[in-house]
Amino acid sequence: MLSEKMQKALNEHLDREMFSSYLYLSMSAYCAKDNLKGFSNWLKIQYQEEMAHFDFIYDYILKRFGTVELGAIEKPKKVWNDIRELFNEVLEHERFISKSINNLVSLAKEEKDFTTDTFLGWFVGEQAEEESNVDEVIGNLSFIDGRGPALLMLDREMATRVFVAPILA
Ligand code: FEO
């Protein structure tokens, strides 16, 4: 059984995961329109991953006899100056999500809710991986100046990403 405080915090995080998927979908659309189909693909898959994260937490609240309470989702941005700015914002957003997960872990420990603490462990690892993946994209983009052939090559590489449904371990 979840405490009221934990239930509220998990519900608030649910909205953040939903906003993440919404944001990445908006970014994906922007890239598609900007003829960066590979980046668009990468971000569309990121959107799917965020929806999976949302589902995991949604299911967990219900499994622990809690109540799901969905909040309003903020409208995401739809335009960026360039692809580097966009990916810097992805990293900034992922760091914000990591902080939110860490706050949930702190609360679970404080309440001696070891079931939730264990459940959240997967998310801690997932966040580290996501931050690292985005950082790698930013690193690659830092070698590219403008929209030359190197950007086209990177776009082709981003097109190879496929969605693999995450499994809660
Ligand atoms: Fe579900 Fe990328 O945080």
Q: Summarize this, please?
A:
With 169 residues, the chain is mostly helical. It is built from five helices and no strands. The two termini are 21 Å apart.
How would you explain this protein's 3D organization?
The structure is a single chain. With 169 residues, the protein is mainly alpha-helical. It has one domain (4-158): Ferritin. Helices cover 73% and strands 0% of the residues. The chain has five helices and no strands. It has helices at 4-33, 37-63, 83-110, 114-142, 149-158. The longest helix has 30 residues, at 4-33. It is elongated. It starts with a helix and ends in an 11-residue tail after the last helix. The relative contact order is 0.17. The model has no long low-confidence stretch (mean pLDDT 97). It binds MU-OXO-diiron (FEO).
